[in-house]
Amino acid sequence: MPEDVSRETPPSEAAGVFASRLSLAEAYVDLLATDGVTRGLIGPREIPRLWSRHVMNSAVVVPRVPHGASVADVGSGAGLPGLVWAIARPDLTVALIEPLLRRTTFLEESIDSLGLDNCTVVRARAEDVHESYDVVTARAVANLDRLGRWCMPLVSKPGGVLLALKGRAAADEVQSATATLHRLGATSIVVATYPNGPDVPTTVVEVSA
Fold first, then answer.
1. What is the DSSP string of 172-199?
2. Which residues touch 3 (CB under 8 Å, ≥6 apart)?
3. Which domains does the chain have, with CATH numbers?
């Protein structure tokens, strides 16, 4: 695997998000480009765009997360967005919820390698978790209707929020899932976009409890 690709220079916007923890973010990108690929969590073709398509796509949302919040990342996979948020925001307490062993092993090893003390791994399906969190998030896990059924029971009420990172079809998903989300306790549903430098903005469905 090409060393110059796996350790590409982060975009200028990364310094504004990660500040003094930028070196940790770079180390995480290296883990994604090496162990993440060999373990099948990241496709080899994603290596040249790990920063723009994955890490920064996740990181630009972190200003939306309240200071000191408890966060659950449902279906965390390789740690996107939860591990990215834990790196960028040491004030957060982040639970990475993931049922598959090979993924939880990577997550645990990454947390240990990066020396993070604000992040834990929960090997479970979301349906089997009985905690509540200030913020619940998920990225590329399921359509919003199904995602709402998994995530809304974990959102602290009142005042908690589900931040679902979505693609261009977010508005269509909202239309299909609105009745389900309201039945699960949603008080408002907003589609927001977060600029990602020269790359495609990150679209987030924000569901408040």
1. HHHHHHHHHHHHTT-SEEEEEEEEETTE
2. none
3. 64-208 (3.40.50.150)
- pLDDT tens digit string along 23-76? 999 999 999 999 999 999 999 999 999 998 999 999 999 999 999 999 999 999
Helix axes 144-151 and 170-183, enclosed angle (nearest 10): 40
Cα(47)–Cα(29) distance, integer angstroms: 9
| Exposure string over 67-105, b if 16+ CB within 10 A, otherwise e | eebbbbbbbbbbbbbbbbbbbbbeebbbbbbbeeeebbe
Cα 150–Cα 153–Cα 155 angle in degrees, nearest 5: 110
Q: What pairing do the DSSP bridges indicate for beta strands 70-74 and 93-97? A: parallel
Give pLDDT tens digits for 139-173: 988 899 999 999 999 999 889 999 999 988 899 99
Give dist(CA 11, CA 32) in Å, integer. Answer: 17
Q: What pLDDT, on the 0 to 100 scale, is given for residue 65? A: 97
Rg of the Cα atoms in the chain? 16
Q: Residues with Cβ < 8 Å from 87, sequence gap 6 or more?
A: 18, 21, 24, 25, 28, 114, 116
Both structure tokens of 41: 């969590």
Cα 57 from chain centroid (whole Å)? 9
Sort 178 into a burial class: Cβ within 10 Å, 0-12 / 13-18 / 19+: middle
